[in-house]
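User: Quick sanity check before I run a bigger batch. Here is a single chain. Can you write out its predicted 3D structure?
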Amino acid sequence: MTRQEARRKAEELVGKMTVEEKASQLRFDAPAIERLGVPEYNWWNEALHGLARGGTATSFPQAIGMAAMFDDELLQKIADAVATEARAKYNAVSKEGDRDIYHGLTMWSPNINIFRDPRWGRGHETYGEDPYLTARLGKAFVHGLQGNGESLKTAACAKHFAVHSGPEALRHSFNAVASPKDLEETYLPAFRALVQDADVEAVMGAYNRTNGEPCCASDYLMGKLRGEWGFEGHFVSDCWAIRDFHENHKVTSAPVESVTKALKAGCDLNCGCTYQHIMHAYELGMITEGDITRCAVRLFTTRYMLGILGDEGSEYDAIPYSSIACRDHLSLAHKAALESCVLLKNNGLLPLDAQTCGTLGVIGPNANSRISLIGNYHGTAPRYVTVLEGIQDAVGDKVQILYSEGCALSADRVEPLAKANDRLAEAVAVARNSDTVILVLGLDETLEGEEGDTGNSYFSGDKDSLLLPESQRILMERVLAIGKPTVVILMAGSSIDLSDAQDKADAVLLTWYPGAEGGRAVTELLFGVQSPSGKLPVTFYRNEALSEMPDFTDYSMRNRTYRYYSGSPLYPFGYGLTYGDCRITDLKADGNSIHITVRNNGSRKCEDVLELYIRDNLSPLAPPHPVLCGFQRIASDAGAEVSCTLTLSPDAFTVVREDGVRISGSGSWTLYAGFGAPDERTAELTGKKPFSVLLSNAQVFMK
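Assistant: Done. Predicted structure follows.
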């Protein structure tokens, strides 16, 4: 059903409603209107990296891990699988009369905020620090969720609009101040892309204020969204964000004023309870029936486009319950976990050989942890495979495995009645009695995440530093001091200072939160069944870099992310090793099309990610470092050559003025192609320098 058809039906239906009935439909938990045949509907559902909070579902890697795949084609397939499971669940439970929260078809995903500061606890919900990468991946996820049928398969939601990335503890009262240049260059491009290029059906407003205006009632942001970008879908507040208008932001003094401000600005749906005051505001003459009608029509338009109102139904009504966590979806999750892991260091120890590695010591608080597999906003998987279990399943009786938890995740002891470091001696004993050690460290959703959802209550889910918890630093120091060949595995969703591991371990593998069966994929990478191929979607800084950055509350991009950071990172954006050795042998620019030939000089088949970066050679308005403008995942056999073509967006050749206006660049650019960013640290870590070519106006715009 087209939007025009759905809107006509919505207008006809809403026209039959009383003002009270219309007002009731602007809440996330919209009640039934039995006399008109309208069933109750709960708008709140989550699909960040799999159907969440509604029971059994396939568990994919956390969003930041899926970003590390640099694979928008796979991400779209994953989102399509998530939408299939959402439909299967909706079809089944609605027949049982269950229309509760987390069972609907309006998905409050993806999170396309920019991971600008490594301390932000919710950064692992995003696609990283780069606007181009975030936009491409966000569009793929939206296309997958919404499908290409006559009806929407599900309705995607771009969140949190806009300029939202911590601190979590201040989000209900905080004012994010961003310059016009930073808005256009960093914070808004992904939202614009999802609206204009992916037709995202919903946008969610953020908790905070941006440049003084609450995001759920911002004239500036709404002007961009509905005016400049032409957004036609519905707008939803973050949960209880409108209450913040009078309780925390103090831009209003009472709920009726907050309702009025949000409704008139164009916030159609309230996640929270403040819209219970709509009728009071109406009776006081603060809002009109037309204000209420406008929002109701937008919401019912979405419901008609989903095919869940009227008699037509949708082509997705027949999706069976057996689609949930089916073999095909579990296979997708497994592939995603393989592609998302990033090999940060390897002195030759990896891949391990079960015939020669001897006794394996598996140590660490995340080695046998289920919660470290899944990240936040997760469903319930039918099976969980930890790293320890994956290794045990893979080697069977061929290799002896010794195991120690080593330490608590963040506390100074595992057993409350024991002395501090009560598992340390056991861990050292395991290391001494092993031939090869696998040390599994990191965080989980109790230490980094959303305000109110983590056990890290002092920082409300944010990190106060980039160091591992002290208990784990002590464990790593003691285990590495034993001197056995050691692989350090990091399970985390953000930048962690792994300087000790980089200096002293033989290999370092970043797995993020790899999904419920992530332990199996991690094991396949460790033993060379597959080659690692993920790339960092964020910069990994040394801890002291925090003192060089603006304050966490400062939204200036100065000295933040790979585009502006002036120091040398521990691991750069776009970095990741493989077991192969891919190198560019030829590059030709034909207009905006870049033709590249790659040869795998290694002895193993592998996948790698070809990355393009561009730098304006003359404009003082350009970022100081080359910026990502293209990427493509390639697979090659040992000794084989592959060719591919990447097309550059016209935006790659623009710069942004201080007043936020995007203009054409200088006419002279350098294009870099390689398997990482064109910086000194990447060259130092990989031993490879990028292929570069000069481009001019004549070359770029000849077609």
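The mean pLDDT is 96.

User: Great, the batch can go ahead then.
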